[in-house]
Amino acid sequence: MRTVYSGLVDESFIGQTVTLYGWAHRRRDHGGVIFIDLRDREGLVQVVCDPDRPEVFATADKCRNEYCLKVVGLVRARPEGTKNDNLISGGVEVLCHELEILNASVTPPFHLDDENLSETTRLTYRVLDLRRPQMQKNLRLRYRAAMAFRKYLDSHGFIDIETPMLTRSTPEGARDYLVPSRVQDGCFYALPQSPQLFKQLLMMAGFDRYYQIVKCFRDEDLRADRQPEFTQVDIETSFLSMDEIRAIMEDLMRTVFKEVLDVELANPFPVMQWDDAMAKYGSDKPDLRVNLQLVEVTDIVADSQFKVFSGVKSLHNGKVVALRVPGACTMPRSEIDAYTEFVKIYGAKGLAYIKVNEAARGREGLQSPIVKNLSDDELAQIIARTGAKDGDVIFFGADKAKIVWDSLGALRLKIGHSEFGKSTGLFTPGWQPLWVVNFPMFEYSEEDQRWVSCHHPFTCPLDGHEDKLLTDPEHCYAKAYDMVLNGWEVGGGSIRIHREEVQEKVFEALKIGKEEARQKFGFLLDALQFGAPPHGGIAFGLDRIATMMCGADSIRDVIAFPKTQRAQCLLTQAPAPVEEKQLRELHIRLRNEPKKEHDIAGQ
Amino acid sequence: MRTVYSGLVDESFIGQTVTLYGWAHRRRDHGGVIFIDLRDREGLVQVVCDPDRPEVFATADKCRNEYCLKVVGLVRARPEGTKNDNLISGGVEVLCHELEILNASVTPPFHLDDENLSETTRLTYRVLDLRRPQMQKNLRLRYRAAMAFRKYLDSHGFIDIETPMLTRSTPEGARDYLVPSRVQDGCFYALPQSPQLFKQLLMMAGFDRYYQIVKCFRDEDLRADRQPEFTQVDIETSFLSMDEIRAIMEDLMRTVFKEVLDVELANPFPVMQWDDAMAKYGSDKPDLRVNLQLVEVTDIVADSQFKVFSGVKSLHNGKVVALRVPGACTMPRSEIDAYTEFVKIYGAKGLAYIKVNEAARGREGLQSPIVKNLSDDELAQIIARTGAKDGDVIFFGADKAKIVWDSLGALRLKIGHSEFGKSTGLFTPGWQPLWVVNFPMFEYSEEDQRWVSCHHPFTCPLDGHEDKLLTDPEHCYAKAYDMVLNGWEVGGGSIRIHREEVQEKVFEALKIGKEEARQKFGFLLDALQFGAPPHGGIAFGLDRIATMMCGADSIRDVIAFPKTQRAQCLLTQAPAPVEEKQLRELHIRLRNEPKKEHDIAGQ
C-alpha cells in the first residue's frame, strides 16, 4: 500500500522512505537528472531520478506523460530557491530508489494542464479529462456536499428510503422515459421524474421523516443546464407547518455551505411573497446580488396620451413597469440599442427609456423619444416613484404581466451582471439566499387550453383558498416555496394535500376526469383515505448546487459521465442500436428502417 | 412540533405536558374511559381520554383505528399492575387534554397486528403494510446498515461518485432493460446491470477509491429473492492487492455488523479456495453453520464392480462423492426417500446410501441396497475416509461434477437445516462469514456453445494463468473473490484487467470478435491505453444483507415498494399501457394489439 498520497507529501515526511502510486504528470530532463511530477488525486510531488541509480534512471528515461508508476524513495527538502508555494508538497521532493512502470500510456490527445479544450474533446476522452485536477476537485466537492446533506438529515431523524426506478407513467408533468415490459406485453414502466408520490406514500405509511439522494429523469429537449438524468436531494416530513419545514431546510443549507465552503449564509433567509418577487424582480427566482428593482407605474400612466402605456389596460393583466438604472446615462447608445434587441427575446415589442439628465429642469432635463408623449405630471410621478436621480436611465416595459416581468427581469440581470453593472456597484458578489413563497396554484396553458399546476397537482392551497380552486383558479395561491440562491432555484417544495376531497377538487380544476384520476392516481387517493397525515417537503437540485459551489460553468463539470445536449454519451456512444431479438422480447418494433451501423458510428 | 415520538415517552417525561402526533393503533372503551394506543414510527403510548373533559371524550369517541391524531396531554405513571414491560412507554400513560383528529380513516382492510396476511394483500395495501411495526423496523435497520457502509467508506477515503443510469446495452451478461431514445431514432439506452465499467473508468481517471450505493437492473425471470431493480454497495480501489482489498472489505463488514446488530463477525474471515469449497461443500457459497462435509471417493471406486460408481470415469469430470450424516440411522425410511426425490431436482439420477449400523462387523454391519455391489476393501476405505461411526448414514452422488456438487451440496443444506439436523447438532446458529477465492475464469455454456465468464469479462486471471486463457480455459483461474455469509453470497468482486492486451485475449477466449469488442467496449479498450492503474473492487448486495440482518423471509420485506415475481407493482399497477403519442415520439410501435383497459385492470 502507499505510504501517503503524492499530493500530501509535505515537510513532515522529510527523512522517510515513502511508497507512492500515481501518474507521470510531466517529465523533464534537467542537467542530467530526470524530474517526474507524480500526480494522484491529492496533487503532485516532484520525484528526482538520479543517474547514480542506473536502473531507476533507465526506467525514468522510458517514462512518458500519463504513465502509471510506483515510486519508492526518500523524502528530502527541496534546495533553497526551488520551493513551490502552490503545492502542499512544494517544499519537498522524493529521491527515487525504486521506479516501476505499472502501465504505459500512448501519447494523450491533450495535456492535462490544457485549459482550452472543446467540450466534445473533453467528453470523448472523459477518462483523461477527469484526471485534470479541477475535475478531481469538482467531483470531490460534490461528494462532500452530498455527504454534508446526509449527515445533517441523518442527525435530524430523516431516513433514506429507496423508491422505485421502474414506476408508472403519469403524463401530468414533463415527458417520461419509458421502459418496455417483457413480461407484460404492451405495457411500460416509466423512469421517475421525481419520487414525489412515493415520498408522500411514505409519509402516509408513518415514516415521519424521509430523504433520498436520487436520480430523476426527464425526456425534454435539453437546455444548457439540463441533463436527461439529474440528482435530487429529496426530502419529506409529516406534521410540520410550512414555516417549520422552511426553518429546517434553510438550517440544512447553511450547514452544508458552512461545512463544504466555510461560507455563512444569512440567518434567517429573507422570505418574499411570490407576488412581490414578480413585482420587484420580474422573476420567481430573483438574484439579490443585483441591486436593481422594478417599480410598477401602471396607475400613473393609466390615462396617458401615450397609447403604448395607457393601452395596457385593455390587456389581461396588462402592466407598465419601470426599471431605474443608476448612472446609466453614461451608457453608449449602442448598449441601449442592444438591450432593446435583448428584451425582444422575451416577447417585448420594444424598450422605452428616459435618460434623467437633470431632473430639476423637469421635462427639459429628460431625454427620450417618449417624453413628448407623457404629461408633466406623469413624468414627475414616474421620477418620484422610481426615485430617479440625475444620471439615471429609466427603462419601461408595457405589456401583459408575463412579458413585462420576463423581459425587464432578464434586463435587470443582464445589466446587473454587465461590465457596467459590476463597475458601478449594481452587483454585490457573495451568496444571496432567499425563500419565495405562496406561489399561484395554477398557470393557464394556452397550449392545453386549461389550468395546469405551477408546482405539481399534489400541492396544498393556502388556508382559505380551497374554495377558489374551482371558482377563481387564477387567484388561488399555494403553500409552495422555492429556495433561491443567486438567481437560481436550488430547491422547491410545498405542503401537500392530505385530504382526499381537496385532492379530487384539484384534479377537477386541472380537468383530470374522475375516471382518469382514479386510473392514474388511484393508489394515492386510496392511501389518502387511511388517515393520511399533514405533510410536506422539498427537493434540492444537487447538480445545480454542486455547480454553484464549484464555481463551475456547467453542470457537466460536476457530473462524471454527463450527456450532451442531444442526450448522448460521447464516451460509450449511448444510446445505440440494439439487436432485433431484444426488441422482439419486449414486444415492440421500430417505426422506421434501422440505421446501418456505420451511419450510427458516423453521426 | 411534537415534544417527542409517542413510542419514546418514558418515565423521564412524567409530570410534563407533551404534544404527540400519530395514529390510533387501537381504541378501547373501558369502564367509561377511552384508551387510545397512539402509534408513530417509534412505537406506541397509551392515551387516556377521561369523561371529565367532555370535548376530548367526544372526539375520542369518534376516533377509529388508523385515524391520524394530535394529542396534547400530561404524562403520568401507569397504575401499579398495569405496566407493560414490552414497551418503552410501558410505565406511563398520557392523560389527554386536547385531542384533534387530523384526518379520519375508512376502516382498514386488516388490522396492523395481523400477522397472517397474504403477500398480495400486503403489496396492494402497501401503505398500511408499511405502518406495521415490523416493516418500520426493517426499513430503518436497512437505512442504518446503508449509513454504516457509507460512514466506514467515507472515513477510509472512498468517494461516492454517481454513474449514469441511462447507459449502453452490452448483451454480455443478463438481459437489459431498454429505454428508447426520442432524439436518436432507432437507438436505445440500457439501464445498468451494474456500474462495472464506469467504476473501472473512474479508477483509470485517478479517483483511487470509489463507492456508490446504487440501483442496478436485470430483466430476468424472477426467482423468490430477485427483484428487477436491486441495490448494490459498489466499491472499487486502485493499487491494492487482492489480499489488501479483502482485508478492507471484511473490516467494513465487521464494522457494519457491529454497528447495526452489535454482532462480532470472525476476524479474520476464513479464506477458502473455490476448488476446496466445491469439493467440501458442493457450493461456492457454503453455509458453514451446517457441520457436514462432502468427501470425494472417486479413486476408491474407480474399478468397482458397481458400474454406477466406476462408470463416472467415462464422464467429463465425473465424480463419486460421499456425504456422511452422523446419527442418521434413526431417520425414518420416508425421510431418506424424500431426499432421493429432492436430489433429482438437481439432476441426480438417484441417491445411494449406506447405513452404518455396526462398522466393526464389516459388510454385515452395513445396511444398503448397494453394499452387495461393493468389495470389502472398497467399503472399508469408504468407511475410513468418511470417518463414519456406528449410527451414521453415508449418502453418495455419482455423476458429472456439477450434478454431484449441486445435488449433494443441496442435500447437505437440507439435512443441516432440517429438524433432524438442528436437534442433532448438525447446525450451529450464528454468523459464519468466509471468503471463497480463486474462481475459475470461465464456465462452459452448453446453450451458447462457448466459454462464458464466471464473474465478468473484466476479471484478471491469476498470475501465471494468462497463457491458459486461450490454451486451457477450463483450468484458467481468476483473481475473483466472493464474500459468503451463512450460505449466501453477500458480495462478489475481483481484481480487474488493467492491460489492454490481456483484455483483448479474454474477449477472444469469450469468442467476442475484435470488431464486436471494439464496437461494444471500445471506450474501455481506449481507456486502458492511457496508463490504467491496477485496480479491483467488490459489490455487496444491500437487499440481501438487510434481509439477513432483519431476519426477514424475503427481500421484499426490506424494500418499501417491491415488485411481484411478475415484475409488477401492485400498488401503482406499473407497468401499464401508455398513450400512442408517447410511442410515436419514441419511434416504436407495439408488435401486438394493445389490450383494452379493462383487461389490464382485471389482470
UniProtKB/TrEMBL annotation, chains A, B:
InterPro entries the record matches: Aa-tRNA-synt_II, aa-tRNA-synth_II, aa-tRNA-synth_II/BPL/LPL, Asp-tRNA-ligase_1, Asp-tRNA-ligase_1_N, Asp/Asn-tRNA-synth_IIb, AspRS_core, GAD-like_sf
Entry keyword ATP-binding: yes
Keywords, in A-Z order: Aminoacyl-tRNA synthetase, ATP-binding, Cytoplasm, Ligase, Nucleotide-binding, Protein biosynthesis
Matching SUPFAM superfamilies: Class II aaRS and biotin synthetases, GAD domain-like, Nucleic acid-binding proteins
Annotated positions binding L-aspartate: 172, 218, 455, 496
Gene3D superfamilies on file: Bira Bifunctional Protein, Domain 2, GAD-like domain, Nucleic acid-binding proteins
Binding annotation for ATP: 218-220, 227, 489, 541-544
Assigned GO CC terms: cytoplasm
Main location: cytoplasm
Subcellular location: Cytoplasm
PANTHER family membership: ASPARTATE--TRNA LIGASE, MITOCHONDRIAL, ASPARTYL/LYSYL-TRNA SYNTHETASE
HAMAP family hit by this protein: Asp_tRNA_synth_type1
Family per record: Belongs to the class-II aminoacyl-tRNA synthetase family. Type 1 subfamily.
Protein purpose: Aspartyl-tRNA synthetase with relaxed tRNA specificity since it is able to aspartylate not only its cognate tRNA(Asp) but also tRNA(Asn). Reaction proceeds in two steps: L-aspartate is first activated by ATP to form Asp-AMP and then transferred to the acceptor end of tRNA(Asp/Asn).
Stated name of the protein: Aspartate--tRNA(Asp/Asn) ligase
Species, as recorded: Sutterella megalosphaeroides
